[in-house]
Amino acid sequence: MEKLRVGEKSALEKLYAGETPRWSNSALEKLRVGEKSALEKLYAGETPRWSKSALEKLRAGETPCCIKSALEKLRAGETPRWRNSVLEKIRAGETSRWRNCALEKLRVGETPRWRKSALETHRAGETPRWRKSASEKVRVGESPRWRNSALEKLRV
Hints:
Layout: H1 11-17, H2 27-33, H3 38-44, H4 54-60, H5 70-76, H6 86-92, H7 102-108, H8 118-123, H9 134-140, H10 150-155
């Protein structure tokens, strides 16, 4: 707290004497002097531009470009490329190769061999030996001896 010098008035004394500068007057003092409250100024339309609510500014068309909602920017076509939704990018054909969904890659035929679905590799006959089903291995004669059924062993 500030120390008062000899003969100096306290803030309260200055307030009562009417010596307090305007910016430091309390709301109550302002009302006594006849100044309008912030609410009254707002209703009277005297509020400075910077104190309007975002909604009011938006309605009045005063909202700066940087404060526009993402939806507004998207509709106006102002959204930067990196902010577009994935769906928008896919529609425009802008999606980079690594961002394409697996389904898109499959349709286009871009999926690398190791990323193909099991069904795709199976249909193409590319299934590696270790991925073949047991029944397929038995049919082809690739099943190891210890995996053969008792029936197979009897036949051999």
